[in-house]
Amino acid sequence: MEFYTNALAQVLTVGPLVAMIGATLLGVFIGALPGLNPVMAIALLLPLTYSMDPLVALGMVAGIYNGSMYGGAIPAILLRIPGTPASIATTFDGFPMADRGEASKALKIACWSSAVGGIASAIALMTVGPLLARVTLHFGPAEYFWIAIFGMASVGVMVGSDPVKGIMAAVLGLLIGTMGIDTLSGQARFTFEQTWLLGGLDLIVVLVGLYALPPVLQLAEKCDLKGLSAAQLKLTNMPFTRAELRSFLPTWLRSSGIGIAVGILPGAGGNIAAFLSYNAAKNASDDPESFGKGNPQGVAAAECGNNADNAASMIPALSLGIPGNVVAALVLSALTIHGLQPGPQLFHQNPVLVGGFMMEMLLTSVLIFALGGTLATRVFAQFQRLPGVLLVPSILILMCVGVYVINGRPVDLWVMLGAGLIGYLFEKVNVPLAPIILGMILGPMAEQSVRRALLISRGDATELFTRPISAVLIVMTLLVIVWPVVKALRRRRLRAR
Amino acid sequence: MEARQDIVLGLALAGLGLAAAWMARGYAGASGIYPMVLGLILTLLGGTVAVRAARSGSRGARALVEAPGKLLVAVGIATLYVAAVVPLGFYTASFLLMLAMPFGLGLRRPVQAGVVAVIFMASVYLVFTVLLEKPLPREAILSILGSSG
Amino acid sequence: MTFKAACIGLTAAAALAAPVLAEYPERTIEMTIPAGAGGGTDTSARKLAILLEEKLGTSIAILNVGGGGGSVGASQFMQAKPDGYALFATWNSPLTTVPQVQNVAYSLDSFTPIASTSETAYTLCVKADFPATTGEEFLAELAANPGKYTYGNDGIGGTMQLAAERIFQTRQIEAVAIPFGGAGETLQNFLGGHVDIYGGSISTVLPYVESGEAKCPLVTSAADVPALPGASGLEALGMADKETLLWRAILGPKGLDPQIVSLLADTIEEAVNDPGYVEFLKTKGEVPNVVKGEALGARLQAEFDALAAVSKALGL
């Protein structure tokens, strides 16, 4: 306990406080712009902090990370453009809500859910995290393979009305995921002799094209010359009723749990957490049909899930010295620069710093309540008051700058444009886009893990099934696939009576 | 069911899958099996979509595009913009886009468009060039001014 | 006029005329790093860039271009204009190792070597209960059990794997290489018991050596490493010529003005020997090592040739 009170005292000084507030706002903004992501922002800011008090630097990291995971929800809800890969699941129900005039409510749900997820995650980081971190070491390549398969099973919720096309989209995503140099053999696959393709297609570039261009083109087709009036925006601040809050509680609990579990595992990210949380909320619902049509629970599940991943992803980094994602790697490199040695002794070596950073992850989550709810959301909603035809070039420019700064190469702009046109046509012929992105994320994880596992077992495939954690994951995967079918059958039988 | 569109879609993806499987045939060892299997599955699924559509035989076409004129203008200007970003420089091309796109889509209020363009570009400049120091394609116009001056 | 403007505009990083040393540098320098943010090369380069900014009096913009084990960034940088405003901060692998296993568009001639900055050895570590402790025992145990042990490394055909295989080939050792995405991932699988041997950078595994959970019988440098007192250097094992190091350097595009090269090389040397930077390198288990200009070119060529022989023998 003294550990945390000491840390709290250090964090509640002017420097770290200003850093956290500023960075959380900046994070919301970065998350809201498609193409800009927290990794880029943190990588840019960290060198500036080498000469600063480490708690100020880490406060900025915490703010940007937590803020951006919420920020991604803003364009997802208002424009159906996910600001980050982790907010794709937010578009499923957030945009339909906005479409029927409940944008402000959807944003508020996203804000609260993000904050709750972040807080739950920070508490996990401060309490059980270090104990759980040791457990994750039992996850070897075979287990990671099953996690990827488990994630893919959640594709079921996003295939839409036509399962064949949904699965087709997922397979297309898996195929895109194989592009580039294969890390296990050095073989270049589908690179067409182009050196820029050796690293494969960049996920963010494809995401921005696939998801942002179709809404922009539709905006152009609508050709709105006037823009919404303030009244049409309906940004009235409606407080949640107690009944509403109570209805979100189970979703928040479930999504927080999923987000934290995914976060602790090195290598699995917030995007997977959001998909899994959404899937779980839909499976648990009495009315799964209403998901995808503007069910507030869908927004709550996705946003709570992706923020609950954040602090938890720091658990393996801080307690074992193993960075689970790029943000964690950046935090570790910042600690190294401040003369600390990441690893199991970090807690004893500098408890104030480690505890302080955990506190900052917690406080910046709380800040989302205040900063995300009113200020940031209002600013972004003003965008919609512009005539649609002015929004079209503005979003296009933001897409281009966001894509260009990732790798600094012009050809990415053409990839984005191409992906966007394909996305536009796919939507028109009922091919869902989310499975493509999911395939791109999980495909490489599944393939590399299974091949590593087979290398370790010297080609014996039974090793994939016999390990205890693998067995649990297999059962869970089967449940995820079978559960909705069972429920649908039962409902049909009830209706028949 | 919109049969013709689905037949084209199915055949296109089936072709893509076949091509991928064909290319993967030459890849070393285990690195080729996985993409080849994926390619074949894609072929199978694409074929299913096409065959299913051909069987259902409904001919009620669904409009692919709501306003073909506007879409064409938007895609055309967007393509020109992407092509112009490197030769003209990012800010020059973007500013032109801010003016050309609304005009092309029928907005006839140049003052409003101009004001929005200036404010918007200024904020982009502040964020990306001043704050984040991100290198963007250099402005050709500066080079011209620079070399003559 | 318009023709000239078009020519200038068509090159991404356009400069006006031949750079005059008196004015150099007068605008932002763009530094390409062929790896994602947060890794070892990235951290070292960013820290160094801050010192260089002070000494050169200009700002340095960092561009991370990851992928393909560094080959994507290297290929992209190759096309930059040799005006001194495009620099390439890399580790040795994309230049000397990756071309052995990938079909890359660049060669050593595509770059102008400026200066190396720091170096460190790779290490091979095992769990505390492994039946060998010294370097000699370790190699004997591996040689006695061909194909029994697995070792994690940074990727197929990566420098780490070649460093290990050079040693293994000399002693006719057969161990199963399991490629991972980086030292962190290797460590995770080593601690979890999924692979028997950790192969990677020293700083990553160091805390576990200090806590007694792991022991490192071997480093891939000729000399011993002070941070790992239990590990044998290759000289002690009679294989000094099989040394393979991880080292970092800054290069320019082909055809960079020699005056700029020597100005940059001297500035880099100053920055690397800054006490703050030396201290920083120490926490990462690295030591400053500055080889400038043509000497650096010769070092790259020698390493390239040695690794070519290894990868040929491996059949990569």
UniProtKB/TrEMBL annotation, chain A:
The keyword Metal-binding does not apply. Residues 17-438 form the DUF112 domain. The chain crosses the membrane at residues 7-33, 39-65, 109-132, 144-160, 167-184, 196-217, 320-340, 352-376, 388-407, 464-486. Signal peptide: none annotated. It comes from the Bacteria. Keywords: Membrane, Transmembrane, Transmembrane helix. The keyword Transmembrane helix applies. Pfam families: TctA. This is Putative tricarboxylic transport membrane protein.
Automatic annotation (TrEMBL), chain B:
Residues 8-137 form the DUF1468 domain. Keywords: Membrane, Transmembrane, Transmembrane helix. It comes from Roseovarius litoreus. The keyword 4Fe-4S does not apply. This is Tripartite tricarboxylate transporter TctB family protein. The chain crosses the membrane at residues 33-51, 71-91, 111-132. It comes from the Bacteria. The keyword Glycoprotein does not apply.
From TrEMBL, chain C:
InterPro entries: BUG, Bug_dom1. It comes from the Bacteria. Keywords: Receptor, Signal. Residues 1-22 form the signal peptide. Belongs to the UPF0065 (bug) family. This is Tripartite-type tricarboxylate transporter, receptor component TctC. It comes from Roseovarius litoreus.
